[in-house]
Amino acid sequence: GGISPSPSEPPSSPCHRFDQDSLERYLGSRLPGFPRQPAGTLAVRQYSSGQSNPTFYLQKGGQAFVLRKKPHGPLLPRAHKVDREYRVQKALFSAGFPVPEPLLYCSDVSIIGTEFYVMQHVQGRIFRDISLPEVGPAERSALYLAMIETLALLHSFDLQSLGLQGYGRGPGYCKRQVSTWKKQYDAAAHTDIPAMNKLAEWLANNLPPDDSEESLIHGDFRIDNIIFHPTQARVLAVLDWELSTTGHPLADLAYTTQFYFWPASIKGLGQGSILGFKNTIETPSFEELVSTYCRCRRISTTLSNFNFFLALSYFKMAGIAQGVYARYLIGNASAENSHEFAKVVKPLAERGLELSKRSSFSSTQHSTSGELFHQSRKGQEILLKVKQFMKQHIYPAEKEIIKYYTECRNSEDRWKKPPLLERLKELAKAEGLWNLFLPDVSGLSQLDYAQIAEETGRCVFAPEVFNCHAPDTGNMEVLHMYGTEEQKKEWLEPLLEGKISSCFCMTEPDVASSDATNMQCTIEREGNSYVINGKKWWSSGAGNPNCKVAIVMGKTKNSSASRYKQHSMIIVPMDTPGLKLIRPLSVFGYMDEIHGGHFEIHFNDVRVPVSNIILGEGRGFEIAQGRLGPGRIHHCMRSLGAAEAALEILCQRAAQRQTFGKKLYQHEVVAHWIAECRLSIEQARLLTLQTARKIDMLGNRRARKEVAMTKVVVPRAVLKVIDCAVQVCGGAGVSQDFPLAFMFAYIRTLRLADGPDEVHLSTIARWELLDQSKKLTAKI
Ligand SMILES: Cc1cc2nc3c(=O)[nH]c(=O)nc-3n(C[C@H](O)[C@H](O)[C@H](O)COP(=O)(O)OP(=O)(O)OC[C@H]3O[C@@H](n4cnc5c(N)ncnc54)[C@H](O)[C@@H]3O)c2cc1C
Question: Per the record, GO CC terms (predicted)?
Answer without folding.
Answer: mitochondrial membrane; peroxisome
